[in-house]
Specification:
Growth Hormone, Chain: A
Length: 488
């Protein structure tokens, strides 16, 4: 499940604020783009086994399909917001949506797993360009009344995409439309995105900051390189046989990260805006928030891919049946998301801690059910999944805004951008690390009964996820008690 935070956009130019039908048309264009991006964050996990079988793709390729997308999205978010401020949000949004459309077609045409993983990276980069513009356009171009309605509509689209992803993935693969099989999950993006492009070209207003800031391109390259050096050996290490040079690649991420921090400090000393100002780490809420985002979304990131593999390859369910099993998770999130969003400014920290603990309990229940290796009924799985969705709904909508309440207003925009990026990187690291643990355990047990092997592999990663949620809940006590009240 893909999660984007609303953060401040101070100083945006607002030549003419939109309302009424005009605002509704503009909102439709940007929410179409948001919908297809959110859809792609969940739909691929359900189709992963079918993709692996058709393209003869290995486990590492499956991990890259998910981790590569989220890693590229994180890197794109770093750059996308600044590009929109500097060159115009409308222009960058249209560029990102057009690129996402082409990358989706490329995914649908991919002849091999490696090409598909590469196209997923292109999708992530394109999404990283367009998504930061959504909130920028809403805040810069809408009247306060229209803005409030727009944010409510965004929440509805988030819930709709979370439900539609697993179900639509299962339906499209099972229906085998025009003989496309799993490729239909990518081709469906194309007409939807083209419709959004047509509306956006005709109606989307331009906006930008009156005084643009220069893009910290070296910083963006360094942090993306450091993340890649961490992920590459974690995902590929098993296929490589864990050679010494794999660990050397992993170790190289340390000096590259150090170079990133040196570059950031240098820019800050000269009065320029780095992608990440190390001085923010002196803010307790921000430092704790970084750790919370990594732990929380790291646990969440791998879950749906590995659960789909267990359900389809372990229990023998079809893609449609798998989507139906995952549906209670999405429904649970829809139930509690309005609570998490509405009451964050009153009891934000309490909601975050409660949500993380509920997620830990849901994973514990699932662990108790799957560890015996028995076939589980739909309703046995539905209970812990619905509970997990409720925990996610309490936490995800307000996590970043609660963190930002403890950051000085002048730093809120930069801090929000970094935290949003870290949620994507946490997803990618979760897929890499927990995916490696899952597949390593699967190798040890696959000689026996298939259901037992996949049950054991899933049971191996669930305690790690429980620990991540519990650690995140403990760190949440360092965050502010509530988010800032919503501004109209």
């Amino acid at each position: 499940m893909s999660t984007h935070a609303l953060h401040h956009d101070r100083g945006a130019a607002t030549p003419a604020l939109l309302s009424g039908k005009t605002a509704a048309v503009v909102l439709a264009a940007i929410l179409i783009a948001e919908f297809v991006e959110l859809l792609d964050a969940t739909i691929v996990s359900v189709a992963a086994p079918a993709i692996a079988e058709d393209l003869n793709a290995g486990e590492a390729t499956l991990q890259w399909m998910i981790a590569g997308y989220t890693l590229a999205m994180g890197a794109g978010l770093i750059v996308g917001g600044r590009l929109g401020d500097q060159f115009g949000r409308r222009r960058v949004f249209l560029l990102g949506l057009a690129a996402f459309t082409l990358a989706s077609a490329g995914c649908g045409l991919s002849p091999t797993g490696s090409v598909l993983a590469g196209m997923r990276v292109a999708q992530g980069l394109a999404g990283g360009l367009m998504i930061p513009q959504v909130f920028g356009i809403i805040r810069a171009s809408f009247t306060p009344e229209a803005r409030a309605k727009a944010l409510g509509a965004y929440g509805a689209v988030l819930g709709l995409a979370s439900v539609a992803g697993p179900l639509l993935g299962g339906v499209l693969v099972e229906a085998d439309l025009f003989g496309l099989g799993w490729r239909a999950i990518f081709w469906i993006n194309v007409p939807i995105a083209i419709a959004g492009l047509i509306i956006a070209v005709r109606h989307l207003p331009e906006s930008r900051r009156p005084y643009g800031t220069r893009l910290d391109l070296p910083g963006a390259v360094l942090i993306a390189t450091a993340a890649l050096l961490l992920l590459l050996p974690l995902v590929q290490g098993r296929d490589w046989g864990w050679p010494w040079w794999g660990f050397a690649i992993l170790a190289c991420s340390i000096p590259v990260t150090a170079l990133f921090l040196v570059n950031a400090r240098r820019l800050a000393r000269h009065g320029r805006q780095p992608i990440f100002d190390p001085a923010l780490l002196r803010e307790r809420a921000f430092a704790a928030g970084l750790s919370v985002c990594l732990l929380f979304f790291g646990a969440l990131g791998s879950f749906f891919l590995l659960l789909s593999l267990y359900l389809q390859l372990g229990t023998g369910r079809t893609t449609l049946e798998t989507g139906l099993v995952i549906l209670p998770y999405a429904l649970g999130s829809i139930v509690t998301s309005p609570i998490g969003a509405q009451f964050a400014h009153r009891a934000g920290r309490a909601l975050l801690v409660s949500g993380s603990l509920i997620l830990a309990v849901s994973q514990l229940l699932l662990l108790l059910f799957v560890r015996d290796g028995a076939a589980l009924s739909y309703w046995t799985l539905a209970l812990p999944l619905f509970l997990g969705g409720m925990g996610l709904g309490l936490t995800a909508p307000s996590l970043i805004n609660v963190v930002l309440a403890g950051v000085p207003a002048k730093d809120a925009g930069a801090a929000g951008g970094v935290l949003t990026t870290v949620t994507q990187l946490g997803n990618a690291f979760g897929v890499a690390v927990l995916g490696a643990v899952f597949f390593a355990r699967l190798d040890e047990t696959l000689a026996g009964p298939r259901l037992t092997a996949y049950s054991d592999a899933l049971a191996t990663i669930l305690p790690w996820q429980i620990v991540c949620y519990l650690a995140a809940a403990a760190l949440m006590f360092l965050l502010p008690k509530r988010a800032n009240a919503p501004q109209e």
